[in-house]
Amino acid sequence: MSKNTDELFKNVIAHAKEYGFVFPSSEIYDGLSAVYDYGQFGAELKNNIKTYWWKSMVQMHDNIVGIDSAIFMHPKIWKASGHVDGFSDPMIDNKDSNKRYRADQLLEDRIAKLDEEGKTSEAEELQVEMDNALKAENLPRLRELIIEQNIKCPISGTTNWTEVRQFNLMFSTRVGAIADESDTIYLRPETAQGIFVNYLNVQKSGRMKIPFGIAQIGKAFRNEVIARQFIIRMREFEQMEMQYFVRPGTQAQWFDKWKETRLKWHPALGTDAAKYRYHEHTKLAHYADAAYDIEFEFPFGFKEVEGIHSRTDFDLSQHQQFSGKKMQYFDPEIDPATEKPYGNYIPYVIETSIGLDRMFLLTMINAYREEDLSTDEKQDSRTVLRLHPCLAPVKAAVFPLIKKDGLPEKAREIMDSLKLDFNLQYEEKDAIGKRYRRQDAIGTPFCITVDHQTLEDNTVTIRHRDSMKQERVAADQLDKIIGDLVSWKNLLK
Ligand code: ATP
Protein backbone atom coordinates (compact mmCIF):
# COMPACT_ATOMS: atom_id res chain seq x y z
CA MET A 1 0.00 0.00 0.00
CA SER A 2 1.53 3.36 -0.94
CA LYS A 3 1.76 6.06 1.69
CA ASN A 4 -1.09 8.02 0.14
CA THR A 5 -3.57 5.18 -0.05
CA ASP A 6 -2.51 3.96 3.38
CA GLU A 7 -3.15 7.43 4.74
CA LEU A 8 -6.47 7.71 2.91
CA PHE A 9 -7.65 4.45 4.47
CA LYS A 10 -6.52 5.55 7.94
CA ASN A 11 -8.30 8.86 7.48
CA VAL A 12 -11.52 7.15 6.45
CA ILE A 13 -11.41 4.93 9.57
CA ALA A 14 -10.73 7.96 11.79
CA HIS A 15 -13.51 9.91 10.09
CA ALA A 16 -15.95 7.01 10.50
CA LYS A 17 -15.32 7.07 14.23
CA GLU A 18 -15.20 10.82 14.76
CA TYR A 19 -18.49 11.39 12.96
CA GLY A 20 -20.50 8.51 14.43
CA PHE A 21 -20.40 5.99 11.59
CA VAL A 22 -18.39 3.06 12.99
CA PHE A 23 -17.03 2.47 16.50
CA PRO A 24 -14.85 -0.37 17.73
CA SER A 25 -17.12 -2.68 19.72
CA SER A 26 -16.85 -2.61 23.53
CA GLU A 27 -14.39 0.22 23.24
CA ILE A 28 -14.37 1.17 26.93
CA TYR A 29 -13.14 -2.37 27.62
CA ASP A 30 -10.42 -1.95 25.00
CA GLY A 31 -12.53 -3.40 22.22
CA LEU A 32 -13.35 -6.87 20.99
CA SER A 33 -11.27 -8.01 18.09
CA ALA A 34 -12.98 -8.07 14.68
CA VAL A 35 -16.28 -6.74 16.02
CA TYR A 36 -17.59 -3.24 15.30
CA ASP A 37 -20.63 -1.17 16.16
CA TYR A 38 -22.42 1.20 13.81
CA GLY A 39 -23.07 4.63 15.23
CA GLN A 40 -25.90 7.07 14.66
CA PHE A 41 -25.01 7.94 11.05
CA GLY A 42 -23.51 4.55 10.26
CA ALA A 43 -26.80 2.86 11.14
CA GLU A 44 -28.67 5.22 8.80
CA LEU A 45 -26.21 4.69 5.95
CA LYS A 46 -26.31 0.93 6.47
CA ASN A 47 -30.12 0.95 6.44
CA ASN A 48 -30.10 2.94 3.23
CA ILE A 49 -27.73 0.50 1.54
CA LYS A 50 -30.03 -2.33 2.65
CA THR A 51 -33.05 -0.49 1.28
CA TYR A 52 -31.34 0.00 -2.07
CA TRP A 53 -30.44 -3.67 -2.29
CA TRP A 54 -33.87 -4.84 -1.12
CA LYS A 55 -35.75 -2.57 -3.49
CA SER A 56 -33.62 -3.50 -6.48
CA MET A 57 -33.74 -7.22 -5.77
CA VAL A 58 -37.24 -7.70 -4.35
CA GLN A 59 -39.40 -4.75 -5.36
CA MET A 60 -38.02 -4.56 -8.90
CA HIS A 61 -38.45 -8.30 -9.61
CA ASP A 62 -41.96 -9.68 -9.47
CA ASN A 63 -40.59 -13.21 -9.07
CA ILE A 64 -38.32 -12.47 -6.10
CA VAL A 65 -39.62 -12.27 -2.54
CA GLY A 66 -37.85 -11.50 0.72
CA ILE A 67 -37.84 -13.35 4.03
CA ASP A 68 -36.28 -12.95 7.46
CA SER A 69 -35.30 -16.30 8.94
CA ALA A 70 -33.98 -16.91 12.46
CA ILE A 71 -30.28 -17.00 13.24
CA PHE A 72 -30.67 -20.17 15.31
CA MET A 73 -31.52 -23.20 13.22
CA HIS A 74 -31.75 -26.94 13.72
CA PRO A 75 -28.19 -28.26 14.13
CA LYS A 76 -28.75 -30.93 11.46
CA ILE A 77 -28.96 -28.14 8.89
CA TRP A 78 -25.25 -27.49 9.25
CA LYS A 79 -24.48 -31.20 8.97
CA ALA A 80 -26.53 -31.34 5.77
CA SER A 81 -25.01 -28.19 4.30
CA GLY A 82 -21.49 -29.51 4.85
CA HIS A 83 -20.50 -26.77 7.26
CA VAL A 84 -19.89 -29.00 10.30
CA ASP A 85 -17.39 -31.09 8.39
CA GLY A 86 -16.11 -28.74 5.76
CA PHE A 87 -16.38 -25.08 6.76
CA SER A 88 -12.87 -24.62 7.93
CA ASP A 89 -9.64 -22.86 7.14
CA PRO A 90 -6.19 -24.46 7.18
CA MET A 91 -4.35 -22.98 10.17
CA ILE A 92 -0.76 -23.08 11.25
CA ASP A 93 0.77 -21.84 14.52
CA ASN A 94 4.21 -20.47 15.12
CA LYS A 95 5.59 -22.24 18.20
CA ASP A 96 7.73 -19.31 19.29
CA SER A 97 5.18 -16.50 19.09
CA ASN A 98 2.10 -18.71 19.65
CA LYS A 99 0.47 -16.76 16.83
CA ARG A 100 -1.95 -18.50 14.52
CA TYR A 101 -2.11 -17.89 10.76
CA ARG A 102 -4.11 -19.13 7.83
CA ALA A 103 -1.70 -21.33 5.91
CA ASP A 104 -3.15 -20.30 2.56
CA GLN A 105 -2.83 -16.61 3.42
CA LEU A 106 0.83 -16.94 4.36
CA LEU A 107 1.37 -18.44 0.93
CA GLU A 108 -0.82 -15.82 -0.78
CA ASP A 109 1.28 -13.06 0.82
CA ARG A 110 4.42 -14.79 -0.40
CA ILE A 111 2.99 -15.00 -3.94
CA ALA A 112 2.17 -11.30 -3.87
CA LYS A 113 5.73 -10.55 -2.72
CA LEU A 114 7.27 -12.66 -5.49
CA ASP A 115 5.08 -10.80 -7.96
CA GLU A 116 6.21 -7.47 -6.57
CA GLU A 117 9.83 -8.53 -6.97
CA GLY A 118 9.16 -9.37 -10.63
CA LYS A 119 9.57 -13.14 -10.05
CA THR A 120 6.41 -13.87 -11.96
CA SER A 121 7.07 -17.47 -12.95
CA GLU A 122 8.03 -18.43 -9.38
CA ALA A 123 4.83 -16.76 -8.17
CA GLU A 124 2.73 -18.62 -10.72
CA GLU A 125 4.35 -21.93 -9.83
CA LEU A 126 3.67 -21.43 -6.15
CA GLN A 127 0.08 -20.45 -6.89
CA VAL A 128 -0.47 -23.71 -8.79
CA GLU A 129 1.20 -25.77 -6.04
CA MET A 130 -0.94 -24.10 -3.39
CA ASP A 131 -4.18 -24.48 -5.37
CA ASN A 132 -3.44 -28.17 -5.88
CA ALA A 133 -2.73 -28.72 -2.20
CA LEU A 134 -5.92 -26.86 -1.22
CA LYS A 135 -8.01 -28.78 -3.73
CA ALA A 136 -6.65 -32.11 -2.50
CA GLU A 137 -6.93 -30.90 1.11
CA ASN A 138 -3.32 -31.94 1.42
CA LEU A 139 -2.40 -30.19 4.69
CA PRO A 140 1.15 -31.61 5.01
CA ARG A 141 1.90 -30.25 1.52
CA LEU A 142 0.75 -26.77 2.56
CA ARG A 143 3.19 -26.94 5.47
CA GLU A 144 5.98 -28.13 3.18
CA LEU A 145 5.39 -25.16 0.88
CA ILE A 146 5.61 -22.76 3.83
CA ILE A 147 8.89 -24.34 4.93
CA GLU A 148 10.28 -24.51 1.35
CA GLN A 149 9.50 -20.84 0.87
CA ASN A 150 11.21 -20.06 4.17
CA ILE A 151 8.17 -18.09 5.34
CA LYS A 152 8.81 -16.60 8.75
CA CYS A 153 6.37 -15.57 11.45
CA PRO A 154 6.29 -11.76 11.36
CA ILE A 155 6.26 -11.65 15.17
CA SER A 156 8.95 -14.16 16.19
CA GLY A 157 10.86 -14.11 12.91
CA THR A 158 11.26 -17.90 13.06
CA THR A 159 10.13 -20.82 10.91
CA ASN A 160 9.25 -22.99 13.90
CA TRP A 161 5.82 -24.04 12.58
CA THR A 162 3.28 -26.58 13.85
CA GLU A 163 1.40 -28.97 11.59
CA VAL A 164 -1.37 -27.45 9.48
CA ARG A 165 -4.82 -28.18 10.93
CA GLN A 166 -8.36 -27.46 9.85
CA PHE A 167 -10.12 -24.96 12.10
CA ASN A 168 -13.92 -24.77 11.91
CA LEU A 169 -15.24 -21.25 11.52
CA MET A 170 -18.66 -21.77 13.11
CA PHE A 171 -19.49 -20.43 16.55
CA SER A 172 -21.46 -22.81 18.69
CA THR A 173 -23.60 -22.33 21.75
CA ARG A 174 -26.11 -24.41 23.69
CA VAL A 175 -29.90 -24.18 23.85
CA GLY A 176 -31.91 -25.41 26.79
CA ALA A 177 -31.40 -24.75 30.47
CA ILE A 178 -30.01 -28.08 31.64
CA ALA A 179 -26.43 -28.55 30.52
CA ASP A 180 -26.65 -32.31 29.98
CA GLU A 181 -29.82 -32.20 27.98
CA SER A 182 -29.00 -29.14 25.98
CA ASP A 183 -28.14 -29.27 22.32
CA THR A 184 -25.22 -27.66 20.60
CA ILE A 185 -26.43 -25.21 18.02
CA TYR A 186 -24.53 -22.91 15.73
CA LEU A 187 -24.71 -19.25 14.94
CA ARG A 188 -25.34 -19.30 11.19
CA PRO A 189 -22.20 -18.71 9.13
CA GLU A 190 -24.32 -17.68 6.10
CA THR A 191 -27.92 -16.61 5.67
CA ALA A 192 -28.41 -18.90 2.67
CA GLN A 193 -29.47 -22.00 4.62
CA GLY A 194 -32.39 -20.11 6.15
CA ILE A 195 -33.62 -19.64 2.58
CA PHE A 196 -33.10 -23.27 1.52
CA VAL A 197 -35.00 -24.74 4.45
CA ASN A 198 -37.89 -22.34 3.76
CA TYR A 199 -37.89 -22.76 0.00
CA LEU A 200 -40.97 -24.99 -0.08
CA ASN A 201 -42.85 -22.88 2.48
CA VAL A 202 -42.31 -19.81 0.32
CA GLN A 203 -42.95 -21.61 -2.96
CA LYS A 204 -46.26 -23.01 -1.75
CA SER A 205 -47.57 -20.07 0.26
CA GLY A 206 -46.50 -17.61 -2.46
CA ARG A 207 -47.50 -19.88 -5.37
CA MET A 208 -44.09 -19.16 -6.86
CA LYS A 209 -43.23 -20.54 -10.28
CA ILE A 210 -39.75 -21.46 -11.35
CA PRO A 211 -37.60 -19.48 -11.94
CA PHE A 212 -38.06 -17.53 -8.71
CA GLY A 213 -35.85 -16.01 -6.04
CA ILE A 214 -35.84 -15.63 -2.27
CA ALA A 215 -33.86 -12.79 -0.76
CA GLN A 216 -32.77 -12.14 2.79
CA ILE A 217 -30.65 -9.69 4.75
CA GLY A 218 -29.21 -10.77 8.05
CA LYS A 219 -26.34 -11.38 10.39
CA ALA A 220 -23.82 -14.13 9.87
CA PHE A 221 -21.06 -15.25 12.22
CA ARG A 222 -17.65 -16.68 11.47
CA ASN A 223 -14.82 -17.26 13.86
CA GLU A 224 -12.33 -15.69 11.48
CA VAL A 225 -8.87 -16.36 12.78
CA ILE A 226 -7.26 -13.46 11.14
CA ALA A 227 -9.24 -10.32 11.49
CA ARG A 228 -7.87 -7.60 9.31
CA GLN A 229 -8.65 -4.39 7.56
CA PHE A 230 -11.34 -2.87 9.69
CA ILE A 231 -14.85 -4.01 8.72
CA ILE A 232 -13.63 -6.12 5.79
CA ARG A 233 -13.25 -9.23 7.90
CA MET A 234 -15.39 -9.37 11.00
CA ARG A 235 -16.57 -12.16 13.25
CA GLU A 236 -20.13 -10.83 13.21
CA PHE A 237 -21.23 -9.32 9.92
CA GLU A 238 -24.22 -8.91 7.70
CA GLN A 239 -25.04 -10.48 4.37
CA MET A 240 -27.56 -9.62 1.68
CA GLU A 241 -28.26 -12.82 -0.18
CA MET A 242 -30.60 -13.96 -2.90
CA GLN A 243 -31.08 -17.58 -3.94
CA TYR A 244 -32.58 -18.02 -7.39
CA PHE A 245 -34.26 -21.38 -8.06
CA VAL A 246 -34.06 -22.57 -11.65
CA ARG A 247 -34.80 -25.56 -13.83
CA PRO A 248 -31.89 -28.04 -13.97
CA GLY A 249 -29.84 -27.46 -17.09
CA THR A 250 -30.56 -23.73 -17.20
CA GLN A 251 -28.15 -22.81 -14.40
CA ALA A 252 -25.30 -21.67 -16.67
CA GLN A 253 -27.53 -19.16 -18.42
CA TRP A 254 -28.95 -17.80 -15.13
CA PHE A 255 -25.49 -17.69 -13.64
CA ASP A 256 -24.35 -15.42 -16.50
CA LYS A 257 -27.41 -13.24 -16.11
CA TRP A 258 -26.95 -12.69 -12.37
CA LYS A 259 -23.22 -12.18 -12.74
CA GLU A 260 -23.90 -9.31 -15.14
CA THR A 261 -26.89 -7.89 -13.28
CA ARG A 262 -25.03 -7.73 -10.00
CA LEU A 263 -21.95 -6.06 -11.49
CA LYS A 264 -24.19 -3.36 -13.02
CA TRP A 265 -25.86 -2.71 -9.68
CA HIS A 266 -22.72 -1.33 -8.07
CA PRO A 267 -21.69 1.72 -10.14
CA ALA A 268 -25.25 3.13 -10.01
CA LEU A 269 -24.23 4.50 -6.61
CA GLY A 270 -21.61 6.67 -8.23
CA THR A 271 -18.65 4.35 -7.79
CA ASP A 272 -16.19 4.22 -10.65
CA ALA A 273 -16.96 1.14 -12.77
CA ALA A 274 -13.24 0.75 -13.44
CA LYS A 275 -12.71 -0.10 -9.78
CA TYR A 276 -14.64 -3.35 -10.12
CA ARG A 277 -13.52 -6.63 -11.59
CA TYR A 278 -14.56 -10.27 -11.66
CA HIS A 279 -12.48 -12.96 -10.06
CA GLU A 280 -13.17 -16.52 -11.11
CA HIS A 281 -12.79 -19.17 -8.40
CA THR A 282 -10.30 -21.88 -9.20
CA LYS A 283 -11.01 -23.77 -5.98
CA LEU A 284 -14.77 -24.25 -5.93
CA ALA A 285 -16.66 -24.72 -2.67
CA HIS A 286 -18.08 -28.19 -2.10
CA TYR A 287 -21.52 -27.11 -3.34
CA ALA A 288 -20.65 -25.08 -6.45
CA ASP A 289 -20.22 -25.78 -10.16
CA ALA A 290 -19.22 -22.20 -10.98
CA ALA A 291 -18.29 -19.17 -8.88
CA TYR A 292 -17.26 -15.60 -9.53
CA ASP A 293 -16.47 -12.86 -7.08
CA ILE A 294 -17.09 -9.21 -7.74
CA GLU A 295 -14.05 -7.43 -6.38
CA PHE A 296 -13.61 -3.76 -5.59
CA GLU A 297 -10.32 -1.92 -5.57
CA PHE A 298 -9.94 -0.79 -1.96
CA PRO A 299 -6.94 1.36 -1.02
CA PHE A 300 -5.21 -1.86 0.08
CA GLY A 301 -5.97 -3.73 -3.15
CA PHE A 302 -8.79 -5.67 -4.78
CA LYS A 303 -11.07 -7.47 -2.31
CA GLU A 304 -14.21 -9.52 -2.74
CA VAL A 305 -17.45 -7.69 -1.98
CA GLU A 306 -19.90 -10.09 -3.54
CA GLY A 307 -19.98 -13.71 -4.62
CA ILE A 308 -22.10 -15.18 -7.42
CA HIS A 309 -22.27 -18.92 -7.02
CA SER A 310 -23.92 -21.66 -8.99
CA ARG A 311 -24.78 -23.96 -6.07
CA THR A 312 -26.32 -26.76 -8.18
CA ASP A 313 -29.00 -28.79 -6.38
CA PHE A 314 -26.52 -29.60 -3.62
CA ASP A 315 -28.19 -27.83 -0.71
CA LEU A 316 -31.77 -28.89 -1.47
CA SER A 317 -30.71 -32.48 -2.16
CA GLN A 318 -28.81 -32.60 1.09
CA HIS A 319 -31.78 -31.24 3.03
CA GLN A 320 -34.04 -33.78 1.35
CA GLN A 321 -31.69 -36.54 2.44
CA PHE A 322 -31.09 -35.30 5.99
CA SER A 323 -34.68 -34.25 6.78
CA GLY A 324 -36.43 -37.02 4.90
CA LYS A 325 -38.79 -34.38 3.44
CA LYS A 326 -39.27 -34.03 -0.30
CA MET A 327 -37.66 -30.90 -1.69
CA GLN A 328 -39.09 -31.39 -5.16
CA TYR A 329 -40.90 -28.88 -7.25
CA PHE A 330 -43.56 -29.85 -9.77
CA ASP A 331 -43.05 -27.98 -13.04
CA PRO A 332 -46.22 -28.12 -15.16
CA GLU A 333 -44.67 -26.41 -18.16
CA ILE A 334 -44.23 -28.42 -21.31
CA ASP A 335 -40.73 -29.45 -22.26
CA PRO A 336 -40.53 -28.87 -26.06
CA ALA A 337 -38.15 -31.82 -26.41
CA THR A 338 -40.52 -34.40 -24.92
CA GLU A 339 -43.81 -32.49 -25.31
CA LYS A 340 -44.57 -33.53 -21.73
CA PRO A 341 -44.48 -31.47 -18.52
CA TYR A 342 -41.05 -31.07 -16.99
CA GLY A 343 -42.56 -32.71 -13.90
CA ASN A 344 -40.84 -33.20 -10.54
CA TYR A 345 -37.30 -32.12 -9.88
CA ILE A 346 -35.07 -30.50 -7.30
CA PRO A 347 -34.30 -27.01 -8.57
CA TYR A 348 -30.80 -25.75 -9.18
CA VAL A 349 -29.75 -22.59 -7.39
CA ILE A 350 -27.85 -19.46 -8.33
CA GLU A 351 -26.78 -17.40 -5.34
CA THR A 352 -25.82 -13.76 -5.14
CA SER A 353 -24.24 -12.94 -1.79
CA ILE A 354 -22.98 -9.51 -0.88
CA GLY A 355 -21.35 -8.42 2.36
CA LEU A 356 -23.18 -5.40 3.69
CA ASP A 357 -20.23 -4.25 5.78
CA ARG A 358 -17.83 -4.43 2.85
CA MET A 359 -20.39 -2.53 0.79
CA PHE A 360 -20.58 0.05 3.58
CA LEU A 361 -16.80 0.49 3.65
CA LEU A 362 -16.60 0.74 -0.13
CA THR A 363 -19.30 3.42 -0.06
CA MET A 364 -17.48 5.42 2.63
CA ILE A 365 -14.14 5.22 0.83
CA ASN A 366 -15.72 6.16 -2.45
CA ALA A 367 -17.50 9.18 -0.97
CA TYR A 368 -14.68 10.50 1.20
CA ARG A 369 -12.93 13.64 -0.11
CA GLU A 370 -10.51 16.10 1.41
CA GLU A 371 -11.04 19.24 -0.63
CA ASP A 372 -8.86 22.31 -0.80
CA LEU A 373 -11.08 25.39 -1.00
CA SER A 374 -8.33 28.00 -0.65
CA THR A 375 -8.64 31.27 -2.52
CA ASP A 376 -6.12 34.08 -3.00
CA GLU A 377 -7.45 35.69 0.18
CA LYS A 378 -7.56 32.74 2.55
CA GLN A 379 -6.69 29.13 3.11
CA ASP A 380 -9.62 26.79 3.50
CA SER A 381 -10.45 23.13 3.18
CA ARG A 382 -13.22 20.70 3.94
CA THR A 383 -13.79 16.99 4.38
CA VAL A 384 -16.92 15.93 2.59
CA LEU A 385 -18.74 12.66 2.06
CA ARG A 386 -20.07 12.81 -1.48
CA LEU A 387 -22.58 10.07 -0.81
CA HIS A 388 -25.34 9.36 -3.28
CA PRO A 389 -28.27 11.46 -1.91
CA CYS A 390 -30.39 8.30 -1.53
CA LEU A 391 -27.78 6.87 0.81
CA ALA A 392 -27.04 10.04 2.81
CA PRO A 393 -27.87 9.47 6.51
CA VAL A 394 -29.35 12.96 6.87
CA LYS A 395 -31.18 14.40 3.87
CA ALA A 396 -31.20 18.04 4.98
CA ALA A 397 -30.14 20.17 7.91
CA VAL A 398 -32.22 23.14 9.00
CA PHE A 399 -30.47 26.16 10.56
CA PRO A 400 -31.83 29.38 12.00
CA LEU A 401 -29.30 32.08 11.02
CA ILE A 402 -29.24 33.31 14.63
CA LYS A 403 -30.73 32.04 17.85
CA LYS A 404 -33.26 34.83 18.31
CA ASP A 405 -35.92 37.06 16.64
CA GLY A 406 -38.23 34.06 16.18
CA LEU A 407 -35.86 32.37 13.70
CA PRO A 408 -35.48 29.13 15.72
CA GLU A 409 -39.27 28.84 15.93
CA LYS A 410 -39.64 29.37 12.19
CA ALA A 411 -36.85 26.84 11.50
CA ARG A 412 -38.59 24.30 13.75
CA GLU A 413 -41.85 24.89 11.91
CA ILE A 414 -40.19 24.17 8.54
CA MET A 415 -38.44 21.17 10.02
CA ASP A 416 -41.72 19.77 11.37
CA SER A 417 -43.33 19.98 7.96
CA LEU A 418 -40.42 18.13 6.28
CA LYS A 419 -39.65 15.48 8.86
CA LEU A 420 -42.65 13.40 7.85
CA ASP A 421 -40.76 12.59 4.66
CA PHE A 422 -37.06 12.96 5.40
CA ASN A 423 -34.47 12.33 8.08
CA LEU A 424 -33.38 15.85 9.12
CA GLN A 425 -31.12 17.59 11.58
CA TYR A 426 -31.65 20.86 13.37
CA GLU A 427 -28.59 22.91 14.26
CA GLU A 428 -28.29 26.35 15.79
CA LYS A 429 -24.86 26.26 17.36
CA ASP A 430 -21.80 27.99 15.82
CA ALA A 431 -21.47 30.12 12.71
CA ILE A 432 -23.22 28.94 9.55
CA GLY A 433 -19.87 28.06 7.90
CA LYS A 434 -19.01 25.66 10.71
CA ARG A 435 -22.44 24.07 10.52
CA TYR A 436 -21.96 23.53 6.78
CA ARG A 437 -18.65 21.75 7.45
CA ARG A 438 -20.23 19.43 10.00
CA GLN A 439 -22.98 18.49 7.55
CA ASP A 440 -20.45 18.04 4.72
CA ALA A 441 -18.58 15.59 6.93
CA ILE A 442 -21.63 13.35 7.27
CA GLY A 443 -22.70 13.77 3.65
CA THR A 444 -25.90 15.81 4.06
CA PRO A 445 -26.95 16.93 0.55
CA PHE A 446 -28.83 20.09 1.62
CA CYS A 447 -28.50 22.78 4.28
CA ILE A 448 -31.48 25.09 4.70
CA THR A 449 -31.01 28.44 6.40
CA VAL A 450 -33.85 30.44 7.87
CA ASP A 451 -33.17 34.18 8.18
CA HIS A 452 -35.11 37.41 8.75
CA GLN A 453 -36.33 37.47 5.19
CA THR A 454 -37.96 34.08 5.78
CA LEU A 455 -40.26 35.71 8.31
CA GLU A 456 -41.36 38.21 5.67
CA ASP A 457 -41.73 36.13 2.50
CA ASN A 458 -41.35 32.47 3.58
CA THR A 459 -38.22 31.94 1.47
CA VAL A 460 -35.03 30.24 2.68
CA THR A 461 -31.54 29.70 1.34
CA ILE A 462 -30.72 26.20 0.32
CA ARG A 463 -27.09 25.22 0.01
CA HIS A 464 -26.00 22.23 -2.05
CA ARG A 465 -23.32 19.95 -0.62
CA ASP A 466 -21.38 19.16 -3.79
CA SER A 467 -21.39 22.49 -5.61
CA MET A 468 -21.62 24.52 -2.36
CA LYS A 469 -23.93 26.84 -4.35
CA GLN A 470 -26.69 28.63 -2.50
CA GLU A 471 -30.03 29.69 -3.85
CA ARG A 472 -33.11 31.33 -2.44
CA VAL A 473 -36.26 29.24 -2.71
CA ALA A 474 -39.80 29.27 -1.35
CA ALA A 475 -40.04 27.17 1.82
CA ASP A 476 -43.07 25.36 0.43
CA GLN A 477 -40.92 24.11 -2.47
CA LEU A 478 -38.46 22.34 -0.17
CA ASP A 479 -40.21 18.99 -0.03
CA LYS A 480 -40.19 18.81 -3.82
CA ILE A 481 -36.55 19.92 -4.17
CA ILE A 482 -35.30 17.47 -1.55
CA GLY A 483 -37.70 14.73 -2.63
CA ASP A 484 -36.60 14.88 -6.26
CA LEU A 485 -32.95 14.45 -5.36
CA VAL A 486 -33.25 11.74 -2.73
CA SER A 487 -35.94 9.69 -4.45
CA TRP A 488 -35.12 5.98 -4.83
CA LYS A 489 -36.45 6.34 -8.37
CA ASN A 490 -33.14 7.97 -9.31
CA LEU A 491 -31.32 4.75 -8.47
CA LEU A 492 -33.87 2.14 -9.43
CA LYS A 493 -34.69 3.32 -12.93
P1 ATP B 1 -13.50 -14.24 1.95
O1 ATP B 1 -12.88 -15.09 0.86
O2 ATP B 1 -13.16 -12.81 1.87
O3 ATP B 1 -13.36 -14.84 3.31
P2 ATP B 1 -15.89 -15.65 1.39
O4 ATP B 1 -15.62 -16.11 0.00
O5 ATP B 1 -15.72 -16.59 2.50
O6 ATP B 1 -15.08 -14.30 1.69
P3 ATP B 1 -18.72 -15.76 1.05
O7 ATP B 1 -18.88 -16.96 1.89
O8 ATP B 1 -18.85 -15.88 -0.42
O9 ATP B 1 -17.35 -15.04 1.43
O10 ATP B 1 -19.71 -14.65 1.62
C1 ATP B 1 -20.34 -13.69 0.79
C2 ATP B 1 -19.96 -12.27 1.15
O11 ATP B 1 -20.03 -12.07 2.56
C3 ATP B 1 -18.54 -11.92 0.77
O12 ATP B 1 -18.47 -11.51 -0.55
C4 ATP B 1 -18.22 -10.79 1.73
O13 ATP B 1 -18.65 -9.56 1.20
C5 ATP B 1 -19.04 -11.12 2.95
N1 ATP B 1 -18.19 -11.67 4.02
C6 ATP B 1 -17.74 -12.93 4.14
N2 ATP B 1 -17.01 -13.07 5.25
C7 ATP B 1 -17.01 -11.86 5.87
C8 ATP B 1 -16.44 -11.36 7.09
N3 ATP B 1 -15.75 -12.15 7.89
N4 ATP B 1 -16.64 -10.06 7.41
C9 ATP B 1 -17.37 -9.26 6.60
N5 ATP B 1 -17.91 -9.67 5.46
C10 ATP B 1 -17.75 -10.96 5.08
UniProtKB/TrEMBL annotation:
Protein name, entry field: Glycine--tRNA ligase
SUPFAM superfamilies associated with the record: Class II aaRS ABD-related, Class II aaRS and biotin synthetases
UniProt cross-references to PANTHER family, sorted A to Z: DNA POLYMERASE SUBUNIT GAMMA-2, MITOCHONDRIAL, GLYCYL-TRNA SYNTHETASE/DNA POLYMERASE SUBUNIT GAMMA-2
Enzyme class name: ligase
Annotated ranges, domain Aminoacyl-transfer RNA synthetases class-II family profile: 140-389
Function: Catalyzes the attachment of glycine to tRNA(Gly).
Binding site for ATP: 222-224, 232-237, 304-305, 355-358
MF terms (GO), sorted A to Z: glycine-tRNA ligase activity
Catalyzed reactions: tRNA(Gly) + glycine + ATP = glycyl-tRNA(Gly) + AMP + diphosphate
Residues binding substrate: R102, E190, F237, E238, Q239, M240, E241, E351, T352, S353, I354, G355
InterPro entries in alphabetical order: aa-tRNA-synt_IIb, aa-tRNA-synth_II, aa-tRNA-synth_II/BPL/LPL, Anticodon-bd, Anticodon-bd_dom_sf, Gly-tRNA_synthase/POLG2, Gly_tRNA_ligase_bac, GlyRS-like_core
Keywords, sorted A to Z: Aminoacyl-tRNA synthetase, ATP-binding, Cytoplasm, Ligase, Nucleotide-binding, Protein biosynthesis
